[in-house]
Amino acid sequence: MNKRLIRLCAGVGLLAVLASGCQSADTLEGQRRTWERNPEQPVTFAVAGRIPFLTTNTDFMDGALLALEEINAAGGVAGRTLELAPYDDEASVMKGTIIAQELSNNRSLSAVIGHTSTHVTIPVSTIYEDAGMLMISPIVSNSRLTQRGYGNIFQNIPGDDDIGREMAMYAHKQGLERIVIYYADNEYGRGLANAFEAAADDLNLQVVDRATRFHEDTHFRRALQKWQAMDYEAVFVADSMLTGKEFLFRLQEAGESPAILADAGMDVDFIHTFGEYGEGAVLASLANMETGGARMNQFLETFQQVHGKAPDEWAVQGYETIHILAEAVNRAQSPAPADVAEALRMITWEGLTGNIHFDSTGRVAGKHIYQKRVVNGRFVYELLDSE
Questions:
Q1: What is the C-alpha separation between 278 and 216, in angstroms, rounded?
Q2: What is the pTM of this model?
Q3: Which CATH architecture has domain 3-158+293-365?
Q4: pLDDT digits (tens, 9 = 90+) for 95-143
Q5: Other beta carbons within 10 Å of 247
Q6: Which residue of 18, 260, 274, 364 pairs with 281 in a disulfide if CB–CB is 3.0 to 4.6 A?
Q7: What is the DSSP string of 83-105?
């Protein structure tokens, strides 16, 4: 990560949260008004979540920093320099809550980008909403995030219901009729598994079984015998690579080779992790890196020049999220979270993945869900015409 482009917030931490409670509302609002009116003060977006995921496991932050460089080179936002401030919640609800309280009381912050774990993002979003702080999630796809009528919460990623439906329709198109669902036993995994199963039922596909993490090998063997007896053809993995890879490794060790369908959560070094066993696997994808148009091609070329490698789709998510927030600040001509949120609901922005806008609930529209298949050690992209 290019650390020179990120100014770490000074004095952050639990002490700052506690200290903020001793200040009066008038003092805090006065600080915000002073910041809003001072063009010498930067516009800051916090990036909260599991930082290793954003900087090491994926290219998210590299994409975000590329957008930051472009924006500042073009004059910044609303005449101000743009900065990013990272906060690592370590996928902990407790730490995420402390960070959310701290950022909500930060009177020189325009927006929070985050968090990266569903079990953290859902509860802390209420803290941001109540405090009037704009939060946008480019990682967490749980549909509940934008189903509560909140005015400050946005989701720059298609919801689990859309992803589950698209992947079930893809299975149907491929003639796969008997499918095992393997899911993470958390809000993310259950929500996606439920969406896939509901769509599969509508399409008359048979969900042979639903399974979550196997703590004992004997449990896996019993389940596998059941699936084999029912002539299962495919597995749909509703899990992240961090934990979902264990399931596919078990299948590989057992000599099983069903068709593999998976969510974008498994798209973290998938090809390198599974090698030949991953051939033919199909993952949900948030971007088409092959035929994405002129803007996508320019992004791919620039990213390759800067980093010496092709970006992953999380780089696209980081890049687009920074740019669309910056566009909202420019439209509002104000860094205040309430003004940026209002502008964000009104704009349509031509991004790398389509004409992006947000509906009345704060949920993104205009993004397609692609499928990408592993063919000869590389991804080949497809778009299911489900409309």
A1: 24
A2: 0.87
A3: 3-Layer(aba) Sandwich (3.40)
A4: 999 999 999 999 899 999 999 999 999 999 999 999 999 999 999 999 9
A5: 21
A6: 260
A7: EEEEEE-TT-HHHHHHHHHHHHT
